[in-house]
Design goal:
Strand order of the largest sheet: 7-6-5-11-12
CATH architecture of the largest domain: 3-Layer(aba) Sandwich
Largest sheet: 5 strands, parallel
Oligomer: single chain
Structural class: alpha/beta
CATH topology of the largest domain: Rossmann fold
Number of helices: 21
Number of domains: 3
Distance between the termini: 35 Å
Number of strands: 15
Shape: flat
Helix content: 40-55%
Length: about 550
């Protein structure tokens, strides 16, 4: 609907003034109409007319061109043109598949989770996983050939820290490891990493030992080391898959590991040692400051690839396997400058991949205790978060069913614009009133319960609309436009804001307008059905289940 009207206004400008112009339509307050455009105000100088005069000319022509679609066209202020669409035209935009063509025929790869094994998955990982998964949903709705992948560090320093503590704990008896109950593994891995990280910072001897153990993660030559490594790595990925499902995220189709990206990355660095990288005591450095970005070491003095070299390798692995037009990586804002440096180096080494990989930087998750940090091992892992949400649901008298927990977690993260910090308030997240996931889930269930009260009634939505009915239908009609915006910007918060406003609009309607047993029952029941379907589609786009009852 919006696109049709926008095109009609652009065509009007072309016919009147022989000027190509893109008409932008906005949604004004309902009392002013359904759409507004400032095209006359914006183009008045070019047209050689006052804004008001231009608006009158354009409006007069539109009243003819849009006679069957628009019931009223008025001028406001210095030259805004307000359009009120006919009920029939409003109805024509309802009930169609909510898909866009923004990414049609484009192949996209997106990392929807990237926690490292040998460490517990923490709240920041959960945040990034939920965002990545939801952005993937938006890409799918946008028509993209979307491939969900993940990337995990299975070698290097963090492995050495965990292995140091684990080997110390079992003291040569691997049976102690195998005897650990599955329910305790996540807490155990978190504790081991924390001990190793603390020792690395505080004990010189431990630091040397950890560095050696980190080196072994590349070779796995020692049999005891290999068995412990493989066991804990398997535990990590089993727990990861369980946790990802509990967050409501879809599984990935490809799991990339740093160990497989390492060789290709090092090879790329060495191949460009004479023109992109600088050798210093055996290490290879990208002098980013010369290009206005982050300077970083890509290969260590021992010849080992570091994070940046592996990211170069990963880019090439993705390109070989998927040939994507875009490859998205969702990470915390702390890594933004790091990726700028990697991308600049990649542009010089692999010019054919310039612009393919995009880093989406998130804000930071904050709790009452402040910012979390995984590098010290002092983190709040995701198991704690699940426990807090479940306890809060019970405290308000509810049952912490899987769907409710997913709705609480995902919506609390997704309603904030990407890039902004998230202050996670668990009581706010689980509330049945206010801007929360459970509130919207309950709103959907309530609508379905209204529909269930009149099983014999046949919904019948016609253009004979009362004012309150039209107001609700108008809000429902905004949904495709909101989806377009969210897909174009890859910003899920637009969907959250809209769904909350939609639920509030419906609540106001239902409070003052009887549905079941009213003479307009069929008409209003049709509205309730369309409202519930829209709410369900929006929730599912966010990865949030829409239960039939709560």
């Amino acid at each position: 609907m919006k696109q049709q009207l926008s095109q009609a206004v652009s065509d009007c400008i072309k016919q009147l003034y022989n000027i190509e112009a893109e008409a932008e339509l906005s949604r004004p307050e309902e009392k002013f109409g359904d759409y507004a455009t400032n095209i006359a105000l914006r183009m008045s100088k070019q047209l050689g007319r006052s804004p008001r005069e231009a608006a009158e000319e354009v409006a007069a022509r539109l009243r003819v061109d849009l006679a069957g679609s628009v019931s009223d066209i008025s001028i406001a202020g210095p030259g805004f043109i307000n359009l009120t669409v006919c009920p029939e035209f409003l109805l024509s935009s309802i009930g169609k598949p909510h898909k866009t063509s923004l990414y049609d025929s484009k192949k996209v790869v997106i990392e929807t989770n990237n926690p490292n094994p040998f460490k517990a998955m923490h709240i920041g990982h959960a945040f990034n996983a939920i965002l990545g998964d939801t952005i993937a949903n938006l890409l799918v709705v946008g028509g993209a050939d979307t491939h969900r992948v993940s990337y995990h560090g299975d070698v290097g320093s963090h492995v050495g820290k965990s292995m140091w503590a684990i080997l110390k704990h079992i003291d040569g008896d691997v049976a102690k490891l195998h005897a650990l109950p599955a329910a305790e593994r996540n807490a155990f891995m978190s504790k081991m990493y924390a001990e190793g990280a603390a020792a690395y910072n505080d004990d010189v001897a431990a630091k040397e030992a950890i560095n050696l153990l980190a080196e072994q993660s590349f070779t796995l030559e020692d049999s005891l080391y290999r068995e412990v490594y493989e066991t804990c790595k398997a535990w990590s990925f089993e727990l990861l898959e369980i946790t990802i499902a509990r967050l409501g995220c879809q599984p990935t189709e490809r799991k990339y590991l740093e160990s497989e990206a390492d060789a290709m990355g090092v090879k790329t660095v060495l191949a460009h040692a004479d023109n992109v990288f600088t050798e210093s005591d055996g290490a290879y450095i990208f002098e980013g400051e010369e290009h206005g970005v982050y300077t970083n070491v890509f290969v260590s003095s021992k010849g080992r690839g570091l994070y940046a070299a592996r990211d170069l390798g990963l880019m090439q692995l993705k390109q070989t396997e998927y040939h994507p037009g875009k490859s998205y990586i969702v990470t915390a804002v702390e890594q933004r400058d790091y990726f700028r440096g990697v991308f600049k180096a990649a542009e010089l080494c692999l010019p054919e991949l310039t612009g393919v990989t995009v880093n989406i930087s998130t804000g930071t998750v904050k709790l009452a205790t402040g910012k979390m940090s995984s590098r010290t091992g002092d983190v709040l892992d995701v198991a704690w978060l699940f426990e807090q949400v479940e306890n809060a649901v019970r405290a308000r008298g509810g049952e912490p069913a899987r769907d409710v927990v997913i709705g609480s977690l995902r919506y609390q993260f997704l309603k904030v614009r990407i890039g902004s910090d998230v202050v996670f308030d668990v009581n706010e997240a689980v509330a049945l009133a206010g801007n929360s996931g459970p509130y919207l889930q309950y709103a959907h269930a309530r609508a379905r319960s209204i529909m269930a009260k009149a099983p014999a009634s046949q919904p019948d939505l016609t253009a004979d609309l009362e004012a309150a009915e039209r107001s609700l239908l108008r809000k429902i009609s905004e949904y495709p436009e909101v989806v377009d915006t969210a897909v174009r910007e890859l910003m899920p918060h637009h969907i959250c804001t809209y769904l909350y406003e939609l639920a509030q609009t419906f609540n106001s309607f239902y409070e003052h307008n009887r549905v079941i047993g009213h003479e307009r029952e069929a008409q209003r029941l049709a509205l309730v059905t369309i409202y519930a379907d829209t709410l369900k589609h929006g929730l599912e786009l966010l990865g949030i289940p829409a239960p039939q009852s709560m």
